[in-house]
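Working notes for the structural subgroup meeting. M.R. asked for a predicted model of this chain before we commit to crystallization trials. I am recording the input and output together here so anyone reviewing the notebook later can reproduce the run.

Input as submitted:
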Amino acid sequence: MTDSTPIDEAGEPEAHHVTLLFTPATDRSGRYLVVAANAGGEFHRDTVDLNSAISRKRFIDATVGKTLSKGSADELRVTLEKQLLDAARVPPGGTEPDTTTSPEEPVDPRIEALAKMPEDIRAEAVAMLESSNLIRKVAEDIEAIGVVGESNTALCVYLVGTSVQLKKPLAAIVRGSSASGKSFIVERTSSLFPPEIVLQATSLTTNALFYFAPGELMHRWIVAGERSRLEDDDRAEATRALREMIESGKLSKAVAGKDSHGEIVTKMIEQEGPVAFVETTTLGQIFDEDANRCLLLATDESKAQTQAIMDATARRATGLDVETHDRIREVHFAIQRMIPRADVLVPFATQISKLYPSEQVEARRSFRHLLNVTRASALLHFRQRERDHLGRIVATYADYAIAENLARAPLADASSGVSAAARKYLEALQEKHTLSTFSTSDAQKVGLGSRATRYRRLLELHNAGAIEQTEPQRGRVPAQWRLVEMDLDSGTSGLPTVEKVMDGHPGETLRHKP
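Returned structure, recorded in token form:
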């Protein structure tokens, strides 16, 4: 028994118009011999378990790799997956639908959601994905939905969400004072991602991740709320499972319980990832175990940024800004549903490693962060990137240029242990108290923010070694401090520029540099 399904019925038959032919391979439900043919005849065949995501992907990769039209490869992947899923639900020949699906290989929910979206939305998403100014258009859309003047931080958050389709997604912590807009940036940027990707979790208890339904955390972006202000051993234990999921992409835990006979037995609870992650905090100091696994992003707390936010708020209040949020979000939903789950190669990674600052041991992790931001950029630009013979996306120097531009400040903050806001506060202290000691009260009169905010920054600088305490507080007499000569920019703020990485490779070109 055979059945054929035309993949593309538009226009005259061409080499990349593919037809699938199904023939039952065995008595086992779901297994078929699937033949791919085009105008030139059969060009690929394989036995496919229609209920297996891995089996379907292997067939699709091989089929797409043998087509003559690379330009239509991404649409073909989506269409082939849809046809194979349709065949799994209603097997060729009209037999009863087979709804069994392996729990270890859940169907990507984005496939069906994308197929149901309006054609004009999908067309606009494709046009944006193929735009030479894609990263700039993303920044413009983030600003259009209300995020003003925080382009780099918001773009980093967007790439964190995009990276969820990688084997090793990104994680980030957005730091800033109260009312600095950090939660707003995360909330608005994550609103551009469809619900099957984003998992809103304003509070995560110690064991919460273990008890989600099996497979529910696979390729999900956990958008957490405000980080607890308690940074003690209990808090470290509470975030241990999250660290394990971020680091290894899976969780396992042995728990004791009773079986059906009342006997105590040990059961293994396992959760498969990977996950991307983002949270916000007002803390200047974060556990090293958590901070090392995350990009440390910061809000802009300058006077100019405050004025820009107030101006944007005023425009909306007077009706001068026409909101088109729904359309923008729908287009980005389509974009994120089109992005493939694929490996990304960085062919020039060794060139970066030779130039990367290695004085500090933290460079081992920050270098990985930089490469993962590069991978996330290449994944976002997948329609503009080549693939190797295994279907892996190949990053370009343009992706590194984007990563180096966006990650320079966050990696410098992680290297020195000092946030961007604390750096500006240090500059204010240096201008005011370069040649003298100063009291805590004096320090709280310098810079921007509340007295409590400035005191937190003082402690942050003290922990980083940028200032030292000469006299402790005695009753009502405040502590005394003095500045210490040190170079906070000696670490990964010296990221190699894309021009240095490209040096010696004249045949390469840098396209679409941000």
